[in-house]
Amino acid sequence: MRKGYNNGMLVNGGGELLGINFGADYCAEHEWGIEKIRKAFGVPETGQGLIKRQITLVPNTLEWVQFKNCEGFWIKPWRDGKIEDYNFPIGKELYTAWSGKDFGVFSTNPKEVSKLREVFEAIQRLDAAMWLGGGGVFKNAGFVICIASRLSKEMTDRWELADKESEKLKADFAATGIEEKLKKAGKGYYALTPRRGKGNSLMFWLNPMEQDRYNHGWYKLGELEQWIQNRGPIVKKNQDRR
Q1: Which of 37, 125, 158, 196 gives the lowest tally of CB atoms within 10 Å of its CB?
Q2: Domain boundaries, position 81
């Protein structure tokens, strides 16, 4: 786990606790995604809206912990870690930490501990959802666990709409066949990510291999197809365009 230095906080809305934003930091542990956590809690891989984020089981690695002057809960690290191995809060700081495989949240403040217990108990009764990123009152990016029954319909409706748009984007991306075309042409890349451009067109974020020869950036489908022929804006000007 790595501490969520930025924006780790308890989130309230409508006069009640909604959940915990574990925050994030600029580290590899916070860039791996949360697929292993989602799997451990039985979060569906398909569906839309709240269904795609709600937990369906509680792993036996989740536990409430009392250690020295702090309390909270964690899912035990993938390695055989012990609570004593971690440098937990000093004073009244809310401590949040997570990676792609585990997480923990602790506090020495009794009022905060009481709120952490609310979230922990919601997880036990499967009334919890988890996701990455902001949205609604959860404005800041990071790993989030919330009490599902306290989310507004407005927020879950926005999720459903965003999920539909995301699925359509993935389908349109696949229909271009550009990944297979680039593979056959021997064009390697670290990332090729689509988004909507003007007029609902597709744009692609390309982070290519061989960056001494090729530029990274946002490109149209036609520019990716030009790359296959060693032409266009992706090819650096000092390269032979054979």
Answers
A1: 125
A2: 2-148+155-162
